[in-house]
Specification:
Layout (H helix, E strand, L loop, with lengths): L2 E3 L5 E4 L19 E3 L9 E5 L4 E5 L6 E5 L15 E6 L5 E5 L5 E5 L5 E5 L1 E2 L5 E2 L2 E6 L5 E5 L4 E5 L5 E5 L5 E6 L5 E5 L4 E5 L5 E6 L3
Parallel strand pairs: 11-12
Antiparallel strand pairs: 1-2, 3-4, 4-5, 5-6, 7-8, 8-9, 9-10, 13-14, 14-15, 15-16, 17-18, 18-19, 19-20
């Protein structure tokens, strides 16, 4: 179930009407995997990644309508209309979006604002522009794309068309990456139970570690 809480943490909505979308075979880990809202969307649609069923949902902000489904439910693939365990999405200023198609497949898929395939990049491996367990993605307002390449223990940086710009190595289990509005980039390093804060030119400027 997707739950909505206010700033104080109090539950204000529970989208139980959509629970049926996340039903899956036993042992497949069904359920909403990640939740995103585009900073460039005035209607603030809510995007839910349902990785175990190989699809991505677009809802109205109040959760009353399922606007769009990307991919085909329970049908994995690596073509222009299917995904294989997609993990995350990110948005570019022009309205296009990027899918981290990421555990069964090893690619970033670029879609236009309507969800139509534009391009893709990435293959299996550990070289620049290759992925192993692509688990998170985000983009900043300049169009730089940050990818949590979990299996390769790094974050990779690309331009909006997939040209490799940089690699930030020496992470143990990077699960998620966030490009903040102030230009910094945050990465979650799961096995080390810490959050890493970078400036946009790679320098690690702070570390915050959870001890609870």
């Amino acid at each position: 179930t997707l739950l909505v809480v206010n700033g104080a943490g109090a539950l204000i909505e529970s989208w139980t009407q959509w629970d049926k979308l996340y039903a899956s075979a036993p042992g497949t880990g069904g359920g909403p995997h990640k939740v995103k809202i585009s900073p460039y969307d005035p209607q603030k649609h809510v995007w839910i990644i349902n990785d175990s069923r190989h699809v991505i949902y677009k809802f109205t902000n109040d959760g009353t309508q399922l606007v769009q489904t990307l991919g085909e439910t329970d049908v994995p693939g690596d073509d222009q209309t299917h995904f294989g365990l997609p993990q995350d999405v990110a948005f570019l200023p022009d309205g296009s979006m990027l899918v981290a198609d990421g555990l069964r497949n090893t690619r970033v898929v670029k879609l236009d604002r309507s969800g139509k395939f534009v391009s893709q990049w990435g293959t299996k491996g550990n070289g620049p522009g290759q992925f192993n367990g692509l688990h998170g993605i985000d983009a900043d307002k300049s169009g730089r794309v940050y990818v949590a390449d979990r299996g390769n223990q790094r974050i990779q940086v690309f331009d909006a068309n997939g040209r490799h710009l940089d690699t930030w190595p020496n992470l143990r289990f990077p699960n998620h990456v966030v490009a903040a509005p102030d230009g910094t980039v945050w990465g979650s390093d799961g096995t080390n139970a810490r959050l890493l804060k970078y400036d946009a030119v790679r320098t690690n400027i702070a570390v915050q570690a959870r001890t609870d």
